[in-house]
């Protein structure tokens, strides 16, 4: 069992770390070790590549007799939102599998507020009960050493 895991995520990637204590000289320096990086290939895809066709009016043929029906498409959801929801599900499924293996005891989840909402909406009770702390910040681009300093101070 690894103990405590730190998940630092946004809509593009989720990095999973564990704390590795090291001693250098007199004081102990905490460092994070990357366990796994889960990438979302749709997180950086342009909107035009995610849309198959624009919403609007259409005509559908109803047979060979020249009968056609007109219809209006409803408003489409933002494809980036759908990709983020799908990625949140993927991250939670990974955590569920690792919880069954007893790979971690508890979690700290660090993500931008919008993505935390996505994670919480797809998270089941077992995983949510393992979350010791939610940090609503986008810290994905922070170095591991700085991240360890920020998250282990409190």
Report on this model:
The chain is of the alpha/beta class. The protein has a single domain (4-39, 80-152), classed as 2-Layer Sandwich (Nucleotidyltransferase, domain 5), CATH 3.30.420. Helix content is 33%, strand content 34%. It is built from 5 helices and 7 strands. The strands form 2 sheets. A 5-stranded mixed β-sheet has the order 3-2-1-6-7. Helix 2 (79-100) crosses helix 3. It is elongated and about 85 Å long. The two termini are 23 Å apart.
Number of domains: 1
Low-confidence stretches: none
Distance between the termini: 23 Å
| Rg (C-alpha, Å) | 22 Å
Q: What is the CATH superfamily classification? A: eRF1 domain 2
Give me the count of strands: 7
CATH overall fold name: Nucleotidyltransferase, domain 5
> What spatial form do the alpha-carbon principal axes imply?
elongated
SS strand fraction: 25-35%
The residue fraction in helices comes out at 25-40%
CATH architecture term: 2-Layer Sandwich
| Element pattern in H and E | EEEHEEHEHHEH
């Amino acid at each position: 069992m690894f103990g405590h895991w730190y998940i630092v995520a946004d809509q593009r990637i989720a990095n999973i770390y564990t704390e590795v204590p090291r001693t250098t000289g007199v004081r102990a320096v905490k460092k994070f070790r990357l366990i796994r990086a889960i990438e979302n290939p749709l997180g950086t895809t342009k909107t035009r590549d995610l849309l198959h066709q624009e919403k609007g009016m259409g005509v559908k043929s109803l047979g060979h007799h020249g009968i056609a029906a007109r219809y209006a498409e409803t408003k489409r959801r933002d494809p980036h939102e759908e990709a983020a929801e799908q990625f949140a599900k993927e991250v939670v499924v990974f955590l569920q599998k690792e919880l069954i293996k007893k790979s971690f005891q508890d979690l700290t989840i660090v993500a931008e507020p919008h993505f935390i909402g996505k994670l919480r909406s797809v998270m089941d009770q077992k995983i949510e009960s393992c979350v010791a702390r939610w940090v609503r910040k986008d810290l994905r681009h922070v170095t591991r050493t700085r991240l360890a300093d920020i998250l282990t101070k409190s």
